[in-house]
Amino acid sequence: MNARNAGQALILNIRRNSLDDGPGIRTTVFFKGCPLNCIWCHNPESKKAKPELSYDAAVCVGCGTCAWGCPESAISENNPYFVDREKCSLCFKCAEACPSRALKRMGTPMTVAEVVESALKDAAFYRSSGGGVTLSGGEPTAYMEFCSELMSELCSAGVDTLVETCGLFDFDRFSLLILPYASRIFIDIKLMDSARHKEMCGADNRVILSNARRLIEASAQGGPEILPRIPLIPGATDTDENLAASAAFLMDCGATRVSLLSYNPTWTDKMRMLGEETKFAASSWTSAEKMESCRAFFKDFEIVR
Description:
The protein is of the alpha/beta class. It is built from 11 helices and 11 strands. Helices cover 32% and strands 19% of the residues.
């Protein structure tokens, strides 16, 4: 069944009590599926718009329960990543049987009502802290109608809504379905060079930059708060050339605020849990010195942490 045609969306996770995805105490809904394929994606388990199986060797107790119950004989400690992905049929019987949750299903179809019910459990915390619900991913706009209905329900309940987006979406549909319900929108600006963006993110950046400009203009005319964010990826987005070009673009758009996101190398561990490797070499967090040098390009902006 296609979750998008059944009044459902594929949800990776609903994280409660989040302090990192907008103001106040928030519940973050992570959607699974993204139109981009960034080679450094901090949530690689959210990229594919289909369920996946994750294996975490660090919490495995070696009991063998998963292997005994696998109908495809796809599980063995002799496999490079424990699970033979060619044999695995994604029945998830192993994840259901795993006592330590070393094996997990990544991606579950949920209805709007189910997500709303989960989110409203913490409504009192939203009210007391100025928080709310953040839609993240993956890419929430891959489920535009679902998000529109979800945000409408949350707004009716007096809940602040925030959308984190990669920016690759149809602006007219976004304006109709998402903008009326969004209090805030965080949009990522990665690489200014279109060819480089296509090489490293799987698509060129023309639609993304156009959407960013239009959102910033809409915000200046009374629309929702827009915060451009630049993930600092070593040797890619954090170069002097890219940062200077990003600052010039945002200044030309009329932006006054920006967020610089420190590089987090732990995504490579998540890749291995999915049975994949990466050739991307950066393996260290962004240093304090590097952060300061990056901030220097945005001295005319309010830098939001």
